């Protein structure tokens, strides 16, 4: 096992000492007025204003939603697409903690962090789309549980999965805070949290697809299928791993000074391994799509504009990147892999939007088009997530530290570069 950083120690002093430490950690590190900070900061500020208007005056004040189209961009992208892109967390933890593939151990912490933040921000976007957001606690407190609804299942899965991921990531927080005894106890809970998280993920990834089984008359025939739950589950695997490749590539460059030796040296090998898994699951996904294509008579739509759009998604954004993943793995060339990951992410976004927005009520006389305010709020939510991710990476031992999953303490290590 490669070298890692030792546990961080913090000044003692009880809650007051930790409070001083936390205030110090809240101070910015590096230049503040960068182009990225200015643009994303402006998006966040405008989002706050727009959401104030939305919660004060209702959904109709800033959205194009209606009684006929109650779900729009905030559900289609922020939730349904965002959850698919967060699928890398359950796949990577399964590979490391269950299959014991130590090769991928250096990216466990950052992947879990990405998944947790995605669920907090994207699943949290459900509140934006609820006409009566205070009713979001009904499935928990029992005031009209709604047990006959698929959303009841999804709601509890989201809640429990976010809790499981927080438990998985909690040893990192304890290390950052300088609480070694608490960290040891929290680490003992990791395997149980991982098993629970994997179970919940496979259920709610397919559960989101099951949610649309009842919309057969509303979704375009090219995207409706009784296999939607299976397609959502399988696609979450290569979507999540493509996001791991994409974010890992950016993180490798932006936070290079934070990288520990295992991640710095094993980065390319990790990408090559992930590319093989992506290719395999994408071909499995294509197999299900071919079966659906034949049995549902989708060939009749191929001469239409919808047919061309469908072929672009399936051929250009699934089959093509699957081949690129294989070529990149065979040649051990990460440039092919990174290109394939980008194409895959675009394909997943288009697929989820085809099911939830573009192909939803496709034959209605008046089609839903997101307002500019809805788009800005989505960009603001993404910007806020990136800010939180950056803050955590710059302060906590996420990239420069890893632990053997079977152990309750870190292996012998040498210190890595300081923050």
Give the structure's gist in a few sentences.
The protein has 419 residues and is an all-alpha fold. It has helices at residues 14-25, 35-57, 73-85, 88-98, 108-122, 126-129, 138-141, 150-177, 180-188, 190-211, 228-254, 261-295, 305-331, 334-358, 372-395. The chain contains 15 helices and no strands.
Key features of this structure:
0% strand; globular; 419 residues; 67% helix; mainly alpha
Describe the structure.
By secondary structure, this protein is mainly α. 67% of the residues lie in helices and 0% in strands. The chain has 15 helices and no strands. α4 (88-98) packs antiparallel against α10 (190-211). The protein starts with 13 loop residues before the first helix and ends in a 24-residue tail after the last helix. Mean pLDDT is 87; it is low at 1-9 and 402-419.
Strand content: under 5%
Radius of gyration: 22 Å
- H and E string: HHHHHHHHHHHHHHH
Helix content: 55-70%
Helical region count? 15
Uncertain parts: 1-9, 402-419
State the distance separating the first and last CA atoms.
23 Å
For the residues shown, what is the average pLDDT?
Answer: 87
- Main sheet: strands, sense, barrel: none
Q: What is the domain total for the residues?
A: 1
What is the general shape? Answer: globular
Topology:
Elements: H1 14-25, H2 35-57, H3 73-85, H4 88-98, H5 108-122, H6 126-129, H7 138-141, H8 150-177, H9 180-188, H10 190-211, H11 228-254, H12 261-295, H13 305-331, H14 334-358, H15 372-395
């Amino acid at each position: 096992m490669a070298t890692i950083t030792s546990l961080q120690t913090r000044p003692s002093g009880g809650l007051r000492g930790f409070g001083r430490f936390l205030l110090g950690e809240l101070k910015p590190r590096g230049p503040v007025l960068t182009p990225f900070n200015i643009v994303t900061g402006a998006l966040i500020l405008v989002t706050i204003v727009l959401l104030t208007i939305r919660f004060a005056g209702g959904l109709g004040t800033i959205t194009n939603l209606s009684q006929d189209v109650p779900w729009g961009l905030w559900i289609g992208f922020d939730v349904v697409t965002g959850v698919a892109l967060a699928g890398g967390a359950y796949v990577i933890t399964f590979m490391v903690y269950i299959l014991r593939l130590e090769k991928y151990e250096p990216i466990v912490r950052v992947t879990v962090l990405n998944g947790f933040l995605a669920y907090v921000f994207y699943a949290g976007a459900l509140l934006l789309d609820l006409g009566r957001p205070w009713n979001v606690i009904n499935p928990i407190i029992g005031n009209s549980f709604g047990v006959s609804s698929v959303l009841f299942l999804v709601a509890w899965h989201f809640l429990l999965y976010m809790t499981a991921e927080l438990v998985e990531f909690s040893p990192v927080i304890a290390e950052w805070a300088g609480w070694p005894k608490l960290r040891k106890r929290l680490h003992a809970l990791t395997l149980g949290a991982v098993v629970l998280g994997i179970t919940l993920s496979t259920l709610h990834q397919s559960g989101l697809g099951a949610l649309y089984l009842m919309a057969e008359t509303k979704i375009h025939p090219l995207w409706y299928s009784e296999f939607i739950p299976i397609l959502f589950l399988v696609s979450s695997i290569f979507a999540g791993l493509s996001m791991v490749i994409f974010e890992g590539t950016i993180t490798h460059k932006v936070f290079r000074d934070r990288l520990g030796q295992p991640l710095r040296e094993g980065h390319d090998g990790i990408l090559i391994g992930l590319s093989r898994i992506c290719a395999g699951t994408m071909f499995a996904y294509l197999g299900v799509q071919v079966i659906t294509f034949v049995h549902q008579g989708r060939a009749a739509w191929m001469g239409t504009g919808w047919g061309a759009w469908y072929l672009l998604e399936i051929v250009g954004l699934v089959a093509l990147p699957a081949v690129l993943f294989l070529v990149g793995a065979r040649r051990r060339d990460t440039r092919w892999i990174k290109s394939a990951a980008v194409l895959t992410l675009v394909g997943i976004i288009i697929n989820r939007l085809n099911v939830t927005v573009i192909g939803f009520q496709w034959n209605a006389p008046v089609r839903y088009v997101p307002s500019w305010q809805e788009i800005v709020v989505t960009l603001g939510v993404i910007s806020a997530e990136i800010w939180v991710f950056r803050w955590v990476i710059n302060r906590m031992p996420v990239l420069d530290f890893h632990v053997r999953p079977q152990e309750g303490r870190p292996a012998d290590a040498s210190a890595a570069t300081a923050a």
